[in-house]
Specification:
alpha/beta; eight-stranded parallel β-barrel; three-stranded antiparallel β-sheet; 11 helices; 15 strands; globular; binds guanosine-5'-monophosphate
Length: 389
């Protein structure tokens, strides 16, 4: 047994130090990025396109129920963001979706696992759509198995013209291994997710900020890219992930609860400790006040769950297999309505972070940013008293 004594960090352990900057306004910040991927070979039809590689704002909706939906993908693609669709869409649904708007191929990945069935499914969809599918997300909870690496390698040989996103891992050597075996973009994160209980169930994980710093370094050394996947709880964390070297940031919980994510909106009534005053004018003209029982407040929620939770297993796999436990939780997130303001808040925060750090472009953020380690990042004094933004 060995102990690594160097302290590893999470987003909550650091802040980005402000720097003198020549930027006049956050409006001047450019969040768009262009990437050329290492292993992907554009299909013949794409070779003359000026921008046959990636171009957009590198934020990705996670392939989770309530987030990686087709409605989310359409909405996000319209503003240059990316979506990894959930694995459960059928061949028909995928074909219809990509057929309806060929531009979606530049901003949407089809997600699969590593079973024989997953490959058959992808083959069938690709046969019908061909170059209308540009990205695949080969997604497993534990990216450290030999079988996973073999699958990525086989997939690369089979589909040279598909950009491969593969994960999840958290260490530099495994990031390199996946890139050398054909992955273009490696997804980083084991256990940081909002609906994840892997660290509790297994004791396994790696603090996310350090994982991103170390894996970005490993990937970039080989000309590969990474996605920081999971653990962002606010726009500031998204900025920290980019500052740490992430090429893309994937979000689950922060994008959950919207109309585009779908799911039933659940209304719950809460008793508050505020009394309701009632005024009555008496026959003699006097005013009488009475205070009746507690005020009732209505709140709206949407159910959101980890893709390894019991809820997801019941929904998609006929229940939890008898040899495994749930590694995800089921929660109620606030219903947020349309997705547009949610996205605006994230992009606004990110632009502002770039302004503070003196980065004119998102691309420059890692070079401009210095992290300061801290014991606490912000005060919580009015958190429970907040009534608006
Ligand atoms: P979030 O942005 O909500 O913090 O994290 C989203 C990420 O959590 C997903 O992209 C995925 O990598 C991870 N995730 C989703 N569901 C589960 C789950 O049930 N268990 C675990 N361990 N991770 C999950």
């Amino acid at each position: 047994m060995r102990i690594e004594n160097e302290t590893k960090l999470d987003y909550a352990n650091v802040l980005i130090r402000p720097k003198r900057s020549t930027l006049g306004s956050r409006k001047e910040v450019n969040l768009e990025r262009k990437f050329t991927f290492r292993n992907y070979e554009p299909a013949f039809e794409h070779r003359n396109w000026e921008d046959h590689h990636y171009r957009g704002t590198p934020i990705i909706a996670s392939n989770m129920d309530g987030v990686g939906t087709m409605a989310v993908a359409k909405k996000l693609a319209s503003v240059g963001l990316f979506t990894c669709l959930v694995k459960t869409y059928s061949e028909e649904e995928l074909v219809e979706f990509f057929d309806s708007q060929p531009d979606l191929a530049d901003h949407v990945a089809v997600s699969i696992g590593i079973s024989e069935q997953d490959l058959i499914h992808f083959d069938a969809v690709y046969d019908r759509l061909h170059t209308d599918i540009k990205y695949v997300c080969i997604d497993v909870a534990n990216g450290y198995s030999e079988r996973f690496v073999d699958f990525v390698k086989e997939f690369r040989n089979r589909y040279p013209a598909v950009v491969i996103i593969a994960g999840n891992v958290v260490t530099g050597e495994m990031t390199e291994e996946l890139i050398l075996n054909g992955a273009d973009i490696v997804k980083i994160g084991i256990g940081p997710g909002s609906c994840c209980s892997t660290r509790i169930q297994t004791g396994v994980g790696y603090p996310q900020l350090s994982a991103v710093i170390e894996c970005a370094d490993a990937a970039h050394g080989l000309g590969g890219h990474i996605i920081a996947d999971g653990g962002c709880t606010n726009p500031g964390d998204v900025a920290k992930a980019f500052a740490a070297g992430a090429d893309f940031v994937m979000l689950g919980g922060m994008l959950a609860g919207t109309d585009q994510g779908g799911g039933e909106v659940i209304t719950r009534l809460y008793e508050t400790d505020e009394l309701e005053a009632k005024k009555r004018i008496l026959p003699d003209g006097q005013t009488e006040w009475t205070w009746t029982s507690c005020k009732v407040e209505e709140r709206k929620f949407v159910k959101f769950y980890g893709m390894s939770s019991e809820t997801a297993n019941n929904k998609h796999f006929g229940g939890l297999k008898d040899y495994r436990s749930s590694e995800g939780r089921t929660v109620l997130v606030d219903y947020k309505g349309d997705m547009q303001p949610v996205v605006q808040e994230i992009l606004g925060g990110l632009r502002s972070a770039c302004t503070y750090a003196g980065a004119e472009k998102l691309k420059h953020l890692p070079k401009c940013a210095t992290f300061v380690r801290c014991i606490d990042t912000h005060t919580r004094i009015f958190e429970s008293k907040t009534i608006g933004k």
